[in-house]
Amino acid sequence: xxxxxxxxxxxxxxxxxxxxxxxxxxxxxxxxxxxxxxxxxxxxxxxxxxxxxxxxxxxxxxxxxxxxxxxxxxxxxxxxxxxxxxxxxxxxxxxxxxxxxxxxxxxxxxxxxxxxxxxxxxxxxxxxxxxxxxxxxxxxxxxxxxxxxxxxxxxxxxxxxxxxxxxxxxxxxxxxxxxxxxxxxxxxxxxxxxxxxxxxxxxxxxxxxxxxxxxxxxxxxxxxxxxxxxxxxxxxxxxxxxxxxxxxxxxxxxxxxxxxxxxxxxxxxxxxxxxxxxxxxxxxxxxxxxxxxxxxxxxxxxxxxxxxxxxxxxxxxxxxxxxxxxxxxxxxxxxxxxxxxxxxxxxxxxxxxxxxxxx
Length: 359
What we know:
By secondary structure, this protein is an alpha+beta fold. The chain has 3 domains: 1-38, no CATH class; 40-137, 434 Repressor (Amino-terminal Domain) (Orthogonal Bundle); 151-355, 2-Layer Sandwich (Beta-Lactamase). The chain has helices spanning 41-57, 82-89, 93-102, 107-117, 127-137, 151-158, 178-183, 193-198, 200-205, 209-231, 233-246, 250-258, 329-332, and strands at 5-15, 21-28, 164-168, 173-176, 271-282, 285-302, 309-319, 325-327.
């Protein structure tokens, strides 16, 4: 079924304070003549106006700043009125109406609006509305979003045969599967991906440490930090703490200072090298008996339903006869495990395939 077309009609003009008439918008079914033009700027503006109206109508009448005076009169309908929303924002009703109609938002007004209608509260169900508000008004994601993942996110990670993890925009490890912890047992108790990869442990276990990890990861950190300085001050402060820890190492401080042109967007599709544990049995207990280098291709994407978490998978690769890379099937097809490294005794024959280094 094709969407209805938007058409301007003047059967019942509305008089404004200027004395001019404005046409109402009506919906007409698409025809052969108008079916190719079914969506216009006016309809987009109407959808945006409907969004603001819905947010105001869904606002809680009772859970607002107690220091503010109560509404002048109780409201029988759910939500609050536009006049009450404007009062909570500290502006006039006319000013709010003009801002919504003309789209003349700034960060101060957006922050006041989300506080007035309750979008600033830490409620997972309201996160999509807050994201829409900021993207609709300012063209970017809102600052200060909490890291929230669902059971479906965890299930997806656990079902990956290759090492997979979720991190936030500060690079904190949020969740990971068993293959990841088998490869990186140092992160069994959590940690920060940046400081781990660029720290002493990373330098020891990542063969192509500086070109493969330091350069691209510092570039991504620089890009995220510059964005945060302008749009998310709290995140900027957190990233400064990470950067301060990293630049205590002279090699990283030099790289950061001498290459200000280094920017990056993410690791998706990059080929890097790691050395992973080889597990065996010592005195009846599973233990690391050595390490072996593995070539990996990184795949990364934002987690839908969140605004600040990303999922990353390290796909083991092997070189084919013609010199190209292909997935290492023995690892990719392995069964998933839990979310912590195995601590119980196993025999070498019972060792999970995903725990072994690439042959």
